[in-house]
Each structure stands twice: as C-alpha cells, then as structure tokens.
C-alpha cells in the first residue's frame, strides 16, 4: 500500500522472482490466535510489562531531553529512545532503539491533561517524529492543551535501526524513462531489477530482515504506550497507520482509549497487500481525472485545454517531449509521472502542477524541472522509506511468486487505469522474490475477543491511495462503536488536521470528550484550490520525496 512522501511542510498541512532463501530468514511456524506466534505474543507481553514497571516510579520510563540536531526539532519538543527486542520471541535477545519525540500538554485555559496522543503518519516507512510540531499550529490548540503529542520513527525508519536496500546515490540518479506501454523486454528488465533489489535488502539487513512487520510495529507501539506510563493508548494513524491501529486494536482491545484512523487501508486479510495495491490503480485514475477536470475548468489561466481529454493531450505532449529530451537534463518520464502522481494524492499541489505543464509548453521548462527533479539531499531519506515500505509489505503476507500472475493482472488493469498501474506493479515487484521463507499471516482485524470503545474513522470519498471501500470495511470490522466521518466529493489523502473544518471539529470533539458523531456522518468537501497565474512568483514549488508512504 503506498502513499508518497512530500516533505515535512506538506505532511504537516495534510494532518494530516525466486531467490535462494538464506537460513537466517526462516521463522517459527506455530501461529498464535491473532497472528504471529505464541512465543512472540508472550515476549511482547513481557516487554510491555517491563516497560510499564520502569515507567511507574517516575511516571515515565523514557529519558526525554534535547533532540539531536539530526532530528531538526526545536524546543520545546524533546526526544528519547525506546529499546525494544528485534525478535519478540526472544525478548532478552538483540534489541534495537526507536526514536521518540514529545511536546508536553500545554494545559492552556485550564485544560486537564488526558495523557499522551501517539501518531503514526503511514507508509510504512514514514517517520512521525515531526508530530509534536503540530502543537503550535492553528486548530490544534485544544488538543495540544490536553495531550502530550508524541511522535516516533517506527523500526527501520530514520534513526530507528535504519533499513537500507541499495545505495541512495543510485536512487537519486535521473533522468529515468518509464514507457507508457511497457514492452516484454522492459518488463524483463524491471523483473531483474526487482530481484536485485530484494537481494540488496537481504544483503544489507541480514538476519534482521524478517522482523520488519506490521505485527512487530504493533508490538513496538504497545511497548511505547507502556514506557510513556499510559495504561491505555490514545492514537492517531493515517493511511498505513490505520492498518497499524486496526491491528493494535485487535491484539489489545482493552488497551485502547481513543483512536482516530484517517484515510483507511482496507484491512481485509484477503486484500493485504497484493490486492490492496491493485485497488489503488482505479483510485488513482479517478483522482487523475479530477485533476484534469479542475485544470479544464481553469483553461483561461493555464491554456491546457477546456476538457479533461484536452488536458490529457497536453500532458501527453509534455511526456513525449521529456522522453526525447529530459527537462533540465534531470526530468524524464519517470520523474514526470512521480511528480504528477502527487496530484492524485493532494489537490493542494494542483496549481503548481498545472502551471508547470503550461510553462513547459510555452517554452519554459524551469518550473517543471524545479518540482520534478530528484533531490540529492533527500536521497537517503527516500531510499530508507522505500526499503521499510518494501520490507513490511513483503513480510506481512504472501505475494504471488510467478511473474505470469503479475503480468496478467496488471495488463488487464492498465487497460482501464493506465496512469499508475505499471509503476505500482514495479514498485512492489520485489515481494515476488522476497528472501524470507515464512511470511506473516495477516491479522484478521476486528477478531478481538472483546468490544472496543468508540473509535473514529475519517475518509475522503474519492481518495485514490486508500479507496473509500477500505473505510467502510474498517468501520465494519471495528464494530458498532466505530463512527465514520466522510468528506463527500473530495479525494485528498489525509483528511484530518487542517483541510476540512467540519472533519476537524468531529476529531477534536472525540479526542477531548470521547463522543463520536454517530454511525455515519458526512462533511461537505473542502474548497478546491484557486488557480495560480503563470506570473504569480509566490506560487510554491513543492519538491517531492518519492518513497511510498501509505
């Protein structure tokens, strides 16, 4: 399942192939009742009890202090590290350190502290270390008054036992060319590259590779809860973070206090993860249409065409041009596609993307080069996020191992959803030859033995990255106390946190009081962005990092 990392500023605004299997990759085969093994469940429980005991005397077992310069987090945000087992079946075996950040509850206007609110921004592969910075943003004052805002980097991410599968310099190289209709020869090339990438993950991670999983992320989350001195978890998860939250709630229903799940992944075990990724392609196609329809409505500004089909023709002209001569020497069709995939995620970027196409067709490639060129300074972060994304999704569940299945499914899908189908296929293709013998069995979210307290799911009706059907399925599985807030007619990924005041009021009320708005309620869509003139030099030019982040 993927989303795209778009940098800290955009994240804040949105808050929103067969290989020889090495011997070390084998995993114990006896499954526990809710996924994983009985030994892992016992080790996780023991680790959480120890963390709670360490936290009890002083009201917190984490030594928070000044954040390292590498985190780029100003005071009053503080940082700490949390030690967890690499393998929960061996709780006294090798341990790894996870980085944690916190901004203490402000207590403004006499607010009573309600505990820590932990956030996961998705991916898998995204870091939530920036989350405490939201305490200073408009609209977060009342939540920040009542809660410590706690972020963390999950295992493998950032400085949390970082995972890498290839040299970041290789990833940063451009231009790249993605054919619109991949030939058999190009498919063979990408198949070989996927196998090489999987081998690189095994070589660089070694014996640790099988332990990057959603189950372990959920276990880490419970240890973090205990180390914070919290009896129950308050949690906000976005995109992949909704699946993590659903798994946690299934494993530990009695430890859930408040849970906001934004832009929900479909948690049906039959869709985790191969079919979930197939489902994204029609979703992205709908959002690509929405972008083109918006551009067409603003033909007077951009001159790209008065219909979605005409805008598509303009985009095709740009694509053909950078296929012949990369823009700025760095932007080929691969970089172009990645930059415009952002338009299928966030309508905030629509003015910039439209302006860049228009300027290019008028003879000025600078704007397109600025927003689509690979960023060498972000190469290591992008490579790390992609590595974690790949490892977690590949470890979490079985994937088709035969290329014929991938080729058949994606060829059929590309006929009706060409925009992103093949790029998504090639991104996930290392899972076909993943060098871990025993994949996890996906947790049956909602199979917990006891009822959950009220939870809140929020979703945009036309979200492409996590199609709306996933929100309906997640709500169904969480039970009768789960409430769903839908932003009608909108599709930006990540609904809560500043785009839609109606949604934000429901989220704030729930976090502060525990009250949900009802089984299913709707909010009107947030306003579409205003067009930006080609002469408006104040227009932003977001530079995208391009790892997946659900």
TrEMBL record:
Keyword Repeat in record: no
Gene Ontology process terms (BP): proteolysis
Protein's name in the database: Protease
Keywords: Hydrolase, Protease, Signal
Keyword field contains Ion transport: no
Signal peptide feature range: 1-25
Superkingdom as given in the UniProt entry: Bacteria
Similarity comment: family membership: Belongs to the peptidase S33 family.
Pfam families: Abhydrolase_4
Positions of the Peptidase S33 tripeptidyl aminopeptidase-like C-terminal domain: 422-523
Region (Disordered): 163-186
Coiled coil: none
InterPro entries membership: AB_hydrolase_fold, Pept_S33_TAP-like_C, Serine_prot/Carboxylest_S33
Molecular functions per Gene Ontology: peptidase activity
Gene3D superfamilies associated with the record: alpha/beta hydrolase
């Amino acid at each position: 399942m993927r989303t795209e990392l778009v940098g800290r500023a955009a994240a804040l605004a949105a808050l929103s192939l067969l290989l020889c299997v090495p011997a070390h990759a084998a995993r114990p085969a006896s499954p526990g009742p809710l996924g994983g093994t009985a030994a892992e469940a016992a080790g996780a429980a023991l680790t959480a009890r120890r963390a709670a005991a360490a936290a009890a005397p002083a009201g917190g077992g984490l030594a928070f202090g000044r954040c390292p310069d590498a985190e780029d987090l100003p005071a009053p945000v503080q940082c700490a590290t949390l030690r967890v087992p690499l393998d929960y079946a061996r709780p006294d075996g090798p341990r790894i350190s996870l980085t944690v950040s916190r901004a203490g509850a402000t207590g403004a206007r006499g607010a009573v502290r309600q505990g820590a609110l932990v956030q996961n921004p998705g991916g898998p592969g995204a870091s939530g270390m920036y989350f405490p910075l939201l305490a200073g943003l408009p609209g977060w004052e009342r939540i920040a008054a009542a809660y410590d805002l706690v972020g963390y980097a999950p295992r493998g991410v950032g400085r949390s036992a970082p995972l890498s599968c290839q040299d970041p310099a290789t990833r940063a190289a451009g231009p790249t060319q993605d054919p619109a209709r991949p030939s058999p020869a190009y498919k063979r090339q990408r198949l070989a590259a996927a196998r090489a990438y999987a081998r690189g993950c095994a070589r660089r991670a070694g014996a640790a590779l099988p332990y990057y999983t959603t189950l372990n992320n959920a276990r880490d989350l419970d240890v973090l809860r205990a180390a914070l001195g919290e009896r129950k978890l308050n949690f906000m998860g976005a995109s992949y973070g909704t699946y993590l939250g659903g798994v946690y709630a299934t494993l530990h229903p009695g430890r859930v206090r408040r849970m906001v799940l934004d832009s929900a992944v479909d948690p049906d075990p039959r869709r985790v993860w191969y079919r979930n990724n197939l489902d994204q392609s029609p979703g992205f196609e709908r959002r690509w249409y929405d972008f083109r329809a918006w551009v067409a409505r603003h033909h007077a500004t951009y001159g790209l065409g008065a219909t979605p089909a005409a805008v598509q023709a303009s985009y095709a002209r740009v694509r053909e041009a950078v296929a012949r001569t990369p823009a700025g020497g760095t932007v080929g069709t691969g970089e172009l596609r990645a930059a415009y995939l952002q338009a299928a995620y966030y309508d905030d970027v629509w003015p910039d993307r439209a302006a860049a196409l228009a300027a290019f067709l008028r003879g000025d490639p600078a704007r397109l080069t600025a927003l689509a060129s690979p960023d060498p300074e972000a190469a290591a972060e992008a490579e790390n996020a992609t590595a974690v994304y790949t490892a977690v999704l590949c470890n979490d569940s079985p994937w088709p191992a035969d290329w014929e299945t991938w080729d058949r499914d994606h060829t059929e899908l590309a006929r009706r959803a060409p925009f992103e189908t093949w790029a998504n296929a090639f991104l996930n293709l290392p899972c076909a030859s993943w060098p871990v013998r025993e994949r996890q069995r996906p947790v049956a979210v909602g199979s917990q033995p006891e009822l959950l307290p009220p939870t809140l799911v929020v979703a945009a009706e036309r979200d492409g990255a996590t199609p709306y059907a996933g929100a309906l399925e997640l709500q169904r599985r969480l039970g009768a106390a789960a409430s769903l807030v839908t932003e009608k007619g909108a599709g930006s990924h990540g609904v809560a946190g500043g785009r839609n005041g109606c949604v934000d009021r429901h989220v704030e009320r729930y976090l502060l009081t525990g009250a949900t708005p009802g089984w299913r309620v709707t909010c009107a869509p947030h306003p579409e962005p205003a067009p930006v003139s080609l002469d408006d030099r104040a227009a932003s030019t977001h530079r995208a990092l391009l790892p997946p982040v659900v």
